[in-house]
Design brief:
Chain lengths: 314, 285
């Protein structure tokens, strides 16, 4: 990616010799760039071919043509009409004259959905709370500059890594088995994942703090906890609030999904609608989730900007 | 020199705000905390967090965790190759999905960039379009694509690709907007066409950011690709949910450990590539 060419043996001389030397060096540089480009392209194409083969990207499938005959087609153009049909099926039939009744029919389960929507947001709230408490407590021993010792640092970091590498849905599968079906499993699953993600972000904030207040507390005879409480926390608090609100937005999305494996929230309705082939329900649910996520994103952005402004105005 | 009590009192009289937060602010804070705590307690009750349930749950969790030791090791090649294929499928889905998303998002990003597209109406409507795409969860997209393309990794690839289009188009157009106009002006001054201005003025500035974003989102897609299999969109997630559904926890834990190892290796490799191609100064947005 170098944009400037190096001219290794271009002597600062004038005349035809210098121009020839320049041309030679230029040709050499171009040649090297072309070789690098060729090798890169070859590697890319090989990786693409292997992954396309593994991922069934160029799969050929049989399709029925309008005249009834069967033919082999590449799967992507073959599937696109089915995709269109499916999306068309999920759209409700709304007519202008009976709009109110049509919408009522479209959102016919609105009472259940509203209850589950509240549950989804409460799951996100609880999970964020657990994530904040866990992540906050672990972020100090997991930060290089304030950790009490190396072993604590290592254990905390590995714990946070495992908690955030395993996706929410997998934690949900495990917790549904342990704590039975319901929102409690969802709260624990999303909460554990948030602990990992927030713990990492918080510990990065902690690593960037000014160490002088902490030294001051130590010099005044404070313990490790005093050092954290009076030296580090006041510095990291604004960042922590901002990350927490961002995480809440992410958790609302996550908790609208985890119901799919039985961990509470709107996701279970998606699964029901899919298995009962209630196509219009699906579009109604997508609309509800979309509107909720957009509203919460908007509100939390407002709140974040207010907090940032408050910090800046101090 | 020590500070006497009356000097502290004098300072307190002069600067009450430095010693104690004023009452209305304290009341507001207390109300906010009480509200959050009340909501938390209500949730505990509504979600049935009873001690008995937590206790039995923890007992079961302990049982499940105990299957981690000793770790399950696949003895026959037939079994292990299935797991490897699942991991390979997840990686393939992430790779092709990321590439496909980037290929579609790249031209779109120019329409959304302020310094390329001067029509505010078109620009804003395109940008709202990116937001709408980003609002769809990858998992929901996967459920839709499974209907059209059948079970298998292809649905996962398309789900990742579509959800990445929105993200990439947004990030790329921000990268394009953050470029300097000076190289573009230079090319215009030497008689370059609009296309040449973009190709030789803007692109060299944008490429490192685009590569960095690509690598970063590839990493995150490897993580999210692991769950797509749970709904049947291919990859290791299918094997994992299958093992969990069959209560074969020892194998499930080994698969989870392999996923973690794979994510580590991918993060490490992409850090290497990032360093080699871009240098260390560029950090993803």
């Amino acid at each position: 990616m170098t944009s400037t060419a190096d001219f290794p043996h271009a002597a600062p001389s004038a005349g035809a010799g210098a121009i020839a030397a320049f041309e030679r060096d230029y040709a050499e540089t171009r040649r090297q760039a072309r070789i690098a480009w060729g090798v890169g392209t070859a590697i890319f194409l090989i990786v693409f071919a292997v992954t396309a083969w593994l991922g069934d990207f160029f799969k050929v499938t049989q399709v029925t043509l309008p005249d009834g005959s069967r033919e082999w087609r590449w799967i992507i153009p073959a599937g696109l009409p089915r995709l269109g049909e499916y999306i068309a099926q999920t759209l409700p039939s709304l007519s202008w004259d009976t709009l109110g009744r049509d919408i009522g029919e479209w959102f016919w389960r609105w009472q259940t959905w509203l209850k589950l929507l509240v549950e989804t947001i409460l799951i996100a709230f609880m999970a964020t709370t657990f994530g904040v408490v866990g992540g906050f407590l672990l972020s100090f021993p997991a930060a290089r500059n304030v950790a009490p010792n190396r072993w604590v640092l290592w254990i905390c970091r590995r714990y946070l890594e495992i908690a955030r590498t395993v996706p929410e849905l997998v934690w949900a599968l495990i917790f549904v088995f342990c704590f039975s079906v319901g929102p409690m499993a969802g709260v624990l699953a999303v909460g554990l994942h948030s602990t990992g993600a927030l713990g990492k972000l918080y510990s990065e904030v902690n690593e960037n703090i000014d160490m002088r207040p902490l030294e001051g507390v130590t010099a005044a005879g404070g313990s490790w906890f005093d050092k954290i409480r009076y030296g580090a926390v006041p510095q990291v608090l604004p960042n922590i609030i901002s990350y927490t609100l961002l995480r809440f937005e992410i958790n609302v999305r996550a908790s609208s999904i985890i119901g799919y494996v039985g961990a509470g929230g709107l996701g279970q309705e998606i699964r029901t609608a899919m298995s009962f082939q209630e196509y219009t329900d699906l579009s109604a649910l997508f609309l509800i989730i979309f509107a909720t996520v957009a509203l919460i994103d908007y509100l939390s952005e407002k709140l974040r900007h207010r907090i940032i402004d408050m910090e800046a105005g101090r | 020199m020590s500070v006497s009590a009356d000097r502290i009192d004098a300072a307190r009289d002069r600067l009450p705000g430095a010693f104690r937060v004023p009452l209305p602010v304290r009341l507001k804070r207390a109300a906010a905390w009480a509200l959050l705590l009340g909501l938390f307690c209500y949730c505990l009750w509504a979600f049935n967090f009873s001690p008995a349930r937590i206790w039995t749950g923890l007992g079961r969790l302990g049982d499940v965790l105990s299957f981690m030791f000793p770790p399950y090791i696949w003895t026959s090649w037939a079994e292990f190759s299935e797991i490897l294929e699942g991991l390979g499928e997840t990686l393939s889905m992430a790779f092709i999905g990321t590439i496909l998303g980037a290929v579609v998002a790249f031209p779109l990003s120019f329409i959304g960039a302020k310094n390329i597209n001067r029509l505010p109406f078109l620009r804003h409507s395109v940008r709202r379009g990116y937001d709408v795409i980003r609002a769809f969860e990858t998992l929901i997209l996967a459920l839709i694509f499974i209907r059209a393309f059948g079970l298998g990794p292809l649905a996962g690839i398309l789900a990742i690709a579509v959800s990445e289009i929105g993200t990439f188009a947004k990030l790329f157009s921000e990268a394009i907007e953050n470029t300097s106009d000076k190289p573009v002006e230079g090319i215009r001054a030497s008689g370059g066409s609009r296309l040449q201005q973009i190709r030789y003025g803007t692109m060299p500035q944008v490429m490192p950011v685009i590569l960095s974003v690509l690598l970063y989102n590839f990493e995150s897609n490897v993580r999210s690709g692991t769950i797509l299999g749970i709904v049947g969109a291919g990859g290791i997630g299918f094997l994992l949910s299958d093992r969990i559904a069959a209560y074969r926890w020892d194998e499930a834990w080994s698969i989870i450990l392999l996923i973690i190892a794979m994510v580590y290796v991918i993060d490490w490799l992409s850090a290497l590539i990032r360093k080699g191609l871009i240098g260390e100064q560029v950090t993803p947005a």
